[in-house]
Amino acid sequence: MKILHVCSNYFPAHGGPQYTMKNLSEKLVEYYDDNVEVATTNSLYGPEMTVHKIIEPAVETINHVHVHRFPFRRWHYPLLTLANKVSGKLRKKALPYSVMKRRWALDCPGIDKMMKDTSADVIMAATAHYNFCDYPSWRFKTANPKPFILYGSLHLNINFSNDSPYIKRAKECDCYIANTHFEKEALLSFGVDPCKIVIIGTGIKVNEYRCKPDDVLSFRRKYGVGENEILIGHVGRLSQNKGAEVLLNAFKKIYKTNRNTKLLLAGTYTGYVPQIKDIIKRENLPVILIENFDADVKPLIFNALDIFVLASGGESFGVVFLEAWACKKPVIGPTLGAVASLVDDNENGLLFETGKNDSLIKKLGLLINNKALRETLGSNGFQKAVTKYNWKSVTEKYRNAYFLALENFKK
C-alpha cells in the first residue's frame, strides 16, 4: 500500500501525535513493506508555540520513511496575537475563529500541494486542529481524490460546539481513529457516523525502555537522588497546560512533611520554564529540571523514577503512561475522560480529582509510603502495555482502519 501521512511536525519534534506518526510510519514499512511518505512542516515546534526552530534537511529518508518538510506562513502571528488582546480589552471577547484560525490552524501551501498531487492509496492526517484536515471538503476539486483518515487526538476538556471545525472534520473524513472509548462516545454525541470510528490509541516498544540497574543508579546519583529517596517525575512538555505547574504546587506541600522526596521535571522547553526556575529558587525546592533531552536519555529518566505523574488538564491519550508502564512504574493521572479510559484506577495507577490539589497530594502520599503498592501498580501497567499496546497489534489495527476508509470512500 502507498500511504501519505500528514502532520504539523515530525521527528525530531516531540509530542504524542509526533511519536505515533513516526513509529506507525516505520512499522508499516517494517511489517508490511508499505511505501510511506510524510508531509509536514520544517519546524521543531507546532504552529501554536511561540518558539520556532527550523529542522533541516527539507527532504530526507528516516528508517525507510520519506519525509518532506515545508515552510509555513507565520509572519502574521504577532499581529493576530496583539489584535486578539486588544479585542479582549475593548470588546470583552476574543476575535472570532474565522480570524484566529490563521494563527492556530496552520497555513502551509507545500503540504496542501503534496496532498493534492499525491499518488498514495490513502491519506492519514493528525491532528484535527489543522487546516490540512479540511482535505475532504476540497479533494473532489482535484484530479485524483483520495480516501482520508483522521487521527483526531481531540482534547475533549474543551467544550466543542456542534459547528466546531474539529467536529466538521470528524464528520467529513472516511475513517476517524479515536484514542479512547471516551473520545468515541463524545464524537457519537456530536452525530459522527459510528461506522467510521475506530478506537486504537498508540503503541510502545517496551524493549527500548530497558536499562542496566547500574546505569539507572548512576543516573540517580548524578542528580543527587539517594537510593532510599522517592523520586517523583513529570516527563512531557514543560508547560502549565501539561500539568508541570500542578505537580510543582503539590510537591511543595509534599516536601514540607516528607524530606525524603525529590521532584524531576523533564521535557521540551516552553515559555513557562523561566517561571519554573523562579519557583524552584524562591522556594528552595529539590527539583531536577532537564530540558530538551536526547531520545536515548528517556529510558533512563523513566527507570530512575519511583512515581510518574501527569497532571495535565487536557489529554487525548497520554503516551507517557505507556512509557512509564514499560519501565514498571506506577502512574498518577487526573480523572479526565481520556486518561480515565487508559489508566485503571487502583489496578495499574491512581487517579486524582482533576483540579483538586489535595486529591493529588493524597494519591502521592499513598504511593510514597507504600513500596508494595508501587510495585503492584507498575507490574500491572507493564502487562497492559505489553498485551494491548504493542506495536505489532497497533499497526495492524491502523492498517485495517485504512482499508475501512477505502471501503467508505467507495460508498
Task: Provide key terms for this protein.
411 residues, alpha/beta, eight-stranded mixed sheet, six-stranded parallel sheet, 16 helices, 43% helix, globular
Q: How would you sum up this structure in a few lines?
A:
The chain is an alpha/beta fold and 411 residues long. Helix content is 43%, strand content 17%.
Which helices and strands appear, and what pairs or packs with what?
Blueprint: E1 2-7, H1 16-32, E2 35-41, E3 59-62, E4 65-70, H2 77-90, H3 97-104, H4 109-117, E5 122-126, H5 135-138, E6 148-151, H6 165-172, E7 175-178, H7 181-189, E8 197-199, H8 213-222, E9 230-235, H9 244-257, E10 261-267, H10 273-283, E11 287-291, H11 298-304, E12 307-309, H12 319-326, E13 331-334, H13 337-342, E14 349-352, H14 357-368, H15 371-388, H16 391-410
The tally of helices reads 16
Shape: globular
Gap between N and C termini? 20 Å
Low-pLDDT segments: none
